[in-house]
């Protein structure tokens, strides 16, 4: 597996967009819409199949996995572009959010449970 930092990916995305003079189109509104559209394309890959069929398709049909890889990449590219456009350090944001989620979902309470959780917030 290739090791690439989020910063490197953000720079690659910014360069790709800049070389095509697309910055003027990469507004927060347009990017939010694009993220949602691409996420819907991920859902479309699993539409009308059971959980078991979806897992089997991913394991047994290379074209399904490639399609999923492509759609995930599209979502990530738009997310990185949104972070770039809004001057957000996404690596910092992810770390901060994971720290917040550690408090919201303590291991000793939520492990192996789907929810709802009874978490005492004193």
Overview of this structure, please?
The chain has helices spanning 6-19, 28-45, 51-60, 62-85, 90-104, 107-110. The protein is mainly alpha-helical. The chain folds into two domains: 6-88, MazG-like (Helix Hairpins, Orthogonal Bundle); 91-122, no CATH class.
> How many DSSP-defined strands?
0
- Write down the overall geometry: globular
CATH topology of the largest domain: Helix Hairpins
Report mean pLDDT, rounded to a whole number: 94
Task: Pick out the low-confidence regions.
Answer: none
Which structural class matches the secondary elements?
Answer: mainly alpha
The protein's oligomeric status is: single chain
* CATH class annotation of the largest domain: Mainly Alpha
What count of helical segments does DSSP give?
A: 6
Helix content: 55-70%
Content of β-strand: under 5%
CATH architecture type of the largest domain: Orthogonal Bundle
The run of helices and strands is: HHHHHH
Instruction: Return Rg in Å.
Output: 18 Å
The CATH homologous superfamily name of the largest domain equals: MazG-like
Taking the alpha carbons of the first and last residues, their distance comes to 43 Å
**Major sheet details:** none
Number of domains: 2
Identify the notable features of this structure and list them briefly:
single chain; 122 residues; mainly alpha; Helix Hairpins
């Amino acid at each position: 597996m290739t090791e690439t930092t989020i910063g490197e990916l953000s720079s690659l995305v910014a360069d790709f967009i800049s070389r095509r003079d697309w910055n003027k189109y990469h507004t927060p509104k347009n990017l939010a819409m694009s993220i949602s559209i691409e996420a819907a394309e991920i859902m479309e890959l699993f539409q009308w199949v059971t959980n078991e069929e979806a897992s089997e398709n991913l394991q047994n049909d290379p074209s399904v996995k490639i399609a999923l890889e492509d759609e995930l990449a599209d979502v990530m590219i738009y997310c990185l572009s949104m972070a770039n456009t809004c001057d957000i350090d996404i690596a910092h944001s992810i770390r901060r959010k994971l720290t917040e989620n550690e408090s919201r979902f303590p291991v000793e309470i939520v492990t192996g449970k789907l929810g709802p959780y009874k978490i005492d917030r004193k």
